Amino acid sequence: MSSSKTSSLPQKPPNHSSMNSAPTNAMSLEINQKWFALYVKPRHEKVVDRALHRVGFESFLPLYVLRHVYAHCSKEHQIPLFPGYVFCRFDPLKRTPILSTPGVISIVSVARKPVPVDDVEIFSVQSAIKAQMFLEPCSFVETGQRVRITRGALSGIEGIVLEVRKSLRLVLSITLLQRSVQLEIDASWIAPCGPSSVSLSIAALSTTL
Q: Are 100 and 135 in contact, with CB atoms under 8 Å apart?
């Protein structure tokens, strides 16, 4: 895996005067757009996220609360769950505006080709954030019992279940980045995943997280 900076000239979509063609064009644009991981400058995650939002891109920066305890007080800080990365949804053939965003170093790529983040993985992290679950980083977990949440606000998300100090933790991973996060769950929420996962659509999620 490499994080190589790639670019191409933006292609202007053809103009159509027919109102009936608009839904078709919108659907085509939707299909071409995927979630990608952007490698950004150190401590520039929030700057990049705001900049992408300002120009109309759909970006996603998952954060968690880290509490620092000092001599006479404590202070909470919102820290990126995936330091050094911001997720953004766009058409990879029109990535020049993404790469020109201040703070963006590159799009995470393999063999110099941008590789999208797995839809189920990004859906799972987005759902946990939207449900205001407490997430924290953990070691990358690639193997184990894969389960799906079947009830509540997290219904539909998938991950690997672990037992930690007599409590269950659901590990959500972004395999492309080899990074994982975890949250505590109840055993009654989960069911083993079948041989084929249900296709999940993140389009139904609110873009305001």
A: no
The residues spanned by each domain of the chain are 1-10+18-116, 118-195
- Please state which CATH number belongs to domain 118-195: 2.30.30
CATH architecture of 1-10+18-116: 2-Layer Sandwich (3.30)
Q: Compute the distance between CA of residue 66 and CA of residue 62 in angstroms, rounded to an integer.
A: 13
Q: What is the dihedral of CA 200, 203, 208, 209, to 10 degrees?
A: 10
In degrees, rounded to 5, the angle at the alpha carbon of residue 55 between the alpha carbons of residues 49 and 57 is 60
Residue with tokens 């949440």, as numbered in its chain: 149
DSSP codes joined into one string, 40-76: E-TT-HHHHHHHHHHTT-EEE--EEEEEEE-SS-EEE
Q: How far apart are CA 84 and CA 28, in angstroms?
A: 31
Q: For 117-144, what is each residue's pLDDT tens digit?
A: 999 999 999 999 999 999 999 999 988 9
Number of other residues whose CB lies within 10 A of the CB of residue 8: 11
Q: Could you report the per-residue pLDDT of 59-74, keeping only the tens digit for each?
A: 999 999 988 777 777 8
Give the tokens for residue 24: 């078709």
For the chain, list residues with pLDDT below 50.
Answer: 2-28, 196-209
CA distances (Å), 87 to each of 48, 116, 119, in order?
10, 10, 12
- The answer to whether the beta carbons of residues 158 and 61 sit under 8 Å apart is no
pLDDT at 154: 93
